Amino acid sequence: NAGVTQTPKFQVLKTGQSMTLQCAQDMNHEYMSWYRQDPGMGLRLIHYSVGAGITDQGEVPNGYNVSRSTTEDFPLRLLSAAPSQTSVYFCASSLTPRSGNTIYFGEGSWLTVV
Amino acid sequence: GENVEQHPSTLSVQEGDSAVIKCTYSDSASNYFPWYKQELGKGPQLIIDIRSNVGEKKDQRIAVTLNKTAKHFSLHITETQPEDSAVYFCAALYGNNRLAFGKGNQVVVIP
């Protein structure tokens, strides 16, 4: 049982490049989400999904796309990276947070856009 | 949406003393309040949570209290140890399955 796995752990991008942050969970969780963490800002929700085929926007969705074709995977795509997207990204999953089930986080992906 | 405020931003305590972090929230409909600990270079990990039908929950040296009337909840760490040094985040569940996080609190335990 690996939990929530994120790749890559570190990435440097040039402005305008695209990339995908991968997230996979092996706990059969319905709910998956992506957060970004910036100094002094805490964790801010980018996008989330309540099940395969369903995604919705969070607090800071601009510049990011997501899809949920399977229960296990929830990739985050940056179509045209900008320096403002330099951040630490965390993927998270849970059965469903509605009833207060534990939300498990991945180890994070450090992204630098130059 | 929900707004979660966390105070203080940094807290230094002597080893063995207690640490208290307080959070306030804005959405009176929130009913689930978890606390996360984040160590350097790692993802946040749940350490304790509380639901709105109870006022206090304890797990060994960690406790959380909830005051729904005042819309605040607090994390209490007793007999602090060096390994308690970390960033602590409070959160509140609101609306359509979303968690709103506070900005985090850096706790430093001085040996």
- The N- and C-terminal alpha carbons of chain B lie at a distance of 40 Å
Radius of gyration of chain B over all CA atoms, rounded: 13 Å
> Main beta sheet of chain A: strand number and arrangement?
7 strands, mixed
Q: What overall form of chain B do the CA principal axes indicate?
A: globular
Topology of chain A as a string of helices (H) and strands (E): EEEEEEEEEEE
By secondary-structure content and strand pairing, the structural class of chain B works out as mainly beta
Distance between the termini of chain A: 36 Å
The shape of chain A, in one word, is globular
Helices of chain A, by number, come to 0
Radius of gyration of chain A: 13 Å
Helix content of chain A: under 10%
- Largest interface, C-beta within 8 A: A-B, 27 and 24 residues
- Fraction in helix of chain B: under 10%
Runs of chain B in which pLDDT lies below 50 for 5 or more consecutive residues are: none
Strand portion of chain B = over 45%
- Return the structural class of chain A: mainly beta
**Could you give the order of the helices and strands of chain B?**
EEEEEEEEEEE
Figure out the total of helices of chain B: 0
What is the mean predicted local confidence, pLDDT of chain B?
92
Portion of residues in beta strands of chain A equals over 45%
Structural features, described:
Chain A contains no helices and 11 strands. Chain A has 114 residues and is an all-beta fold. The model of chain A has no long low-confidence stretch (mean pLDDT 93). In chain B, 0% of the residues lie in helices and 59% in strands. In chain B, strands 2, 4, 5, 9, 10 and 11 form a 6-stranded mixed β-sheet that branches. In chain B, strands 1-3-8-7-6 form a 5-stranded antiparallel β-sheet, with no helix packed on it. Chain A binds chain B through residues 4, 31, 35, 40-45, 48, 50, 56, 58-59, 90, 96-100, 102-108, and chain B through 1, 6, 31-32, 34, 36, 41-46, 49, 51, 89, 93, 96-99, 101-104.
